[in-house]
Amino acid sequence: MNTWRVRFLYFLTSIAAVQNVTSLEEELTDSIFGNFLDPVKDLFEHKDEPSRNVVRFSLRKPSHPDDDLCYIISGEAETLSACNFSSTAKTFLVIHGWTLSGMFESWVSKLVTALYEREQTANVIVVDWLNSAQNHYVVAAQNTKAVGQEIAHFIDWIEEASNMPLDNMHLIGYSLGAHVAGFAGSHANNKVGRITGLDPAGPDFEGEHAHRRLSPDDAHFVDVLHTFTRGSLGLSIGIQQPVGHVDIYPNGGSYQPGCNLRGALEKSLTLAYLL
Ligand SMILES: *[C@@H]1O[C@H](CO)[C@@H](O)[C@H](O)[C@H]1NC(C)=O
Questions:
Q1: Tens digits of per-residue pLDDT, 194-229?
Q2: 52-274, what's its fold?
Q3: β-pair partners for 192
Q4: How far does residue 83's CA lie from ligand 1's centre (Å)?
Q5: Which residue intervals of the chain are DSSP H helices?
Q6: Where found (predicted)?
Q7: Which protein residue's CA is at the shortest distance from atom 8 of ligand 1?
Q8: What is the mean pLDDT of the chain?
Q9: Could you tell me which of 246, 269, 94 has the C-alpha nearest to residue 172?
Q10: Given ligand 1 and candidates 80, 84, 86, which is best to mutate, with the most ligand atoms within 8 Å of its CB?
Q11: Crossing angle for the helix pair 23-48 and 3-18, nearest 10 degrees?
Q12: What residue spans define the domains of the chain?
């Protein structure tokens, strides 16, 4: 918006104020002014509505670990039966982390398969918060709380709608998703059985108060794997402090030789670049 146009709009509205304008002129002014304000309104609307996070819950099938075939929708009990949700089986919520691509990483379907191999009758639900996770890291990290709260609503609803005991609920979150799981657990009305944090994210969470990150308060049992806590420039991708009842640091937690080193390096480089 250049100053000339602002002056013109000002001129136009002052004329409208002084003169007895016809409704057509009024409409014209309104629409010009409206158009002028629209992008600004958008800006404020985005800031005022942090709850714009879209969180989806896809019940994956053992035969199609990669495909989102059936979504369970909070408040719509018929989606539970439509997706063949079993209220007596274990329920896993798999929660991804920060993303640049806006797509699920390949570990998601591998984990789905692994969980079904162990628990054939389980409900393995992949939580999709890609929309809020595909952001500048700092923004995505800030979104973890609101996303966690939405998941908490989902947990409260599914507990009531299906009568499932929350002891059967196991949240598994990777990186930022580990903190999302923490917020989900702490905001749910009743405690979930277990949260597993897979290399919970460090930046913006290290040293924070327990209620602002994954902590032992968030579930009856919180177990954590720290796999990439090797710092660079004082920054560690994975959180270094213990945040669960049990914290495991394979190879000292620093890094895992030969284990997807490229992915880890790419992540650390992008993170270093974005911060
Ligand atoms: C649910 O189970 C029925 C009966 O086994 C099957 O026909 C149907 O395709 C299943 N639905 C989904 C979404 O998997």
A1: 999 999 999 999 999 999 999 999 999 999 999 888
A2: Rossmann fold (3.40.50)
A3: 219
A4: 7
A5: 3-18, 23-48, 78-82, 107-118, 130-133, 137-162, 176-187, 261-274
A6: Secreted
A7: 84
A8: 82
A9: 94
A10: 84
A11: 130
A12: 3-47, 52-274
